[in-house]
């Protein structure tokens, strides 16, 4: 099975491996990066650009696939201002779920622009609080694109081995600071009604996503 997907890509270990696996399957991929500057600094965006350019320069079948199927435009969307809305006492424990729902909604806007059928992520079941089975379901319903999760059932050690084998691990390694605004004890079981009510109180998920997307930048890879 092949098709067109929009990919949420960070500077971490998982998402570039997911992109590489789907490139080898023949998928056309349009990358999107949700920038959390100034909370995180420029590091995650710089790593994301470096990782995608690495794939495009790769020698061999993976590089050939990247040059044929990976869009040369990285869409960078600022999200820090909106994420700060989910640090209130009444919504903070669901912060990471709201964060991923916002990312998915932003990616969906891009997906509709380019005719994508799927949303590609590096999500891995149970690796972090937002990736419990219940929370993945709460995130998934924020998009009408079909989820594409090629790393879902892999152990983290296996994913790191894949990253090492294709040469992305060294670029990806380093401190992960995407949780800078996150709670100490995040929710592990999403409640759809509560999530939607919380998002409505701060303007509505789709409105937040559209506002973020209106401020996008495009980086030519």
Key attributes of the depicted protein:
single chain; Rossmann fold; 46% helix; alpha/beta; six-stranded mixed beta sheet; 221 residues
Characterize the structure shown.
The protein has 221 residues and is of the alpha/beta class. The protein has a single domain, classed as Rossmann fold (3-Layer(aba) Sandwich). The chain contains ten helices and six strands, in the order βαβααβααβαβααααβ. It has a six-stranded mixed sheet with strand order 5-4-1-2-3-6, sandwiched between helices. Strand 4 (118-120), helix 6 (133-140) and strand 5 form a beta-alpha-beta unit.
Class, according to the CATH hierarchy? Alpha Beta
Major sheet: order of its strands? 5-4-1-2-3-6
Mean pLDDT: 94
Q: How many β-strands, per DSSP?
A: 6
Q: How large is the radius of gyration?
A: 16 Å
**Sheet with most strands:** 6 strands, mixed
N-to-C SSE string, H for helix and E for strand: EHEHHEHHEHEHHHHE
| CATH level-4 homologous superfamily | HUPs
Query: How many H/I helices?
Result: 10
What is the element layout, followed by pairings?
Blueprint: E1 4-8, H1 14-24, E2 28-35, H2 43-57, H3 61-69, E3 73-78, H4 80-83, H5 95-114, E4 118-120, H6 133-140, E5 146-148, H7 156-166, H8 169-172, H9 192-201, H10 205-213, E6 217-220
Parallel strand pairs: 1-2, 1-4, 2-3, 4-5
Antiparallel strand pairs: 3-6
Helix pairs in contact: 1-7, 5-6, 5-10
Task: Summarize this structure briefly.
The protein is an alpha/beta fold and 221 residues long. It has helices spanning 14-24, 43-57, 61-69, 80-83, 95-114, 133-140, 156-166, 169-172, 192-201, 205-213, and strands at residues 4-8, 28-35, 73-78, 118-120, 146-148, 217-220. The chain has a single domain (4-220), classed as HUPs (Rossmann fold).
């Amino acid at each position: 099975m092949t098709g067109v997907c929009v990919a949420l890509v960070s500077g971490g270990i998982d998402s570039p491996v997911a992109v590489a696996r789907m490139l080898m399957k023949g998928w056309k991929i349009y990358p999107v990066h949700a920038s959390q500057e100034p909370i995180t600094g420029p590091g995650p965006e710089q790593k994301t650009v470096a990782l995608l350019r690495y794939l495009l320069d790769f020698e061999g079948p993976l590089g050939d696939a990247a040059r044929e199927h990976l869009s040369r435009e990285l869409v960078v969307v600022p999200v820090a201002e909106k994420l700060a809305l989910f640090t209130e006492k009444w919504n903070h424990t669901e912060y990471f779920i709201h964060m991923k729902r916002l990312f998915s909604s932003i990616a969906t806007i891009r997906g509709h622009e380019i005719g994508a059928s799927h949303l590609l992520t590096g999500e891995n079941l149970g690796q972090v609080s937002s990736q419990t089975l219940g929370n993945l379901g709460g995130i998934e319903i924020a998009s009408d694109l079909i989820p594409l999760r090629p790393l879902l059932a892999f152990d983290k050690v296996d994913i790191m081995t894949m990253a090492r084998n294709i040469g992305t691990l060294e670029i990806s390694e380093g401190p992960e600071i995407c949780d800078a605004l996150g709670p100490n004890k995040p929710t592990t079981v999403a409640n759809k009604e509560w999530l939607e009510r919380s998002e409505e109180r701060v303007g509505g998920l789709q409105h937040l996503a559209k506002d973020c997307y209106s401020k996008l930048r495009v980086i030519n890879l």
